[in-house]
Design a protein that fits this description.
With about 120 residues, the chain is of the alpha+beta class. The protein is built from 3 helices and 4 strands, in the order H-H-E-E-E-E-H. This is 4-hydroxybenzoyl-CoA thioesterase.
Length: about 120
């Protein structure tokens, strides 16, 4: 048995990395929902699989967000094992009201976090 990472797991890894990036920027998603009624939803994914990860591989997942409009952003992400690129993709994230799922402007704190990444 090869013990390869199932391809869908990269979406989970990317989601966790985005969540931790937001948390490091001061945006807890549960708190955001409680305070503002806003949530983030995945609107589109495009992934390219280059090489499988294996059991016990130590992976690094990158998060490179860019604004894509008032209510969304595109996050470029990569899964790396050392210097080897395993998977890369773009995920479009939308900001919506939790109760209506209607698009809403990205909160200022999220816009600031994206700007900080893009000016670094």
């Amino acid at each position: 048995m090869f013990r390869l990472t199932y391809f869908q797991n990269y979406l989970k890894y990317f989601e966790r990395a985005r969540t931790e990036w937001l948390r490091a920027a001061g945006v807890g998603q549960q708190q955001l929902r409680e305070d503002t009624g806003l949530i983030f939803v995945v609107a589109d994914t495009q992934l390219r699989y280059l090489s499988p990860a294996r059991l016990d591989d130590l992976l690094t997942i990158t998060v490179d967000p860019e604004p894509a409009g008032r209510a969304s952003l595109v996050v470029r992400q990569r899964a790396m094992r050392g210097d080897t690129l395993l998977c890369e993709g773009e995920i479009r994230i939308g900001c919506v009201r939790a109760d209506t799922l209607k698009p809403q402007r990205l909160p200022d704190i999220v816009q600031s976090a994206v700007a900080a990444v893009n000016t670094a």
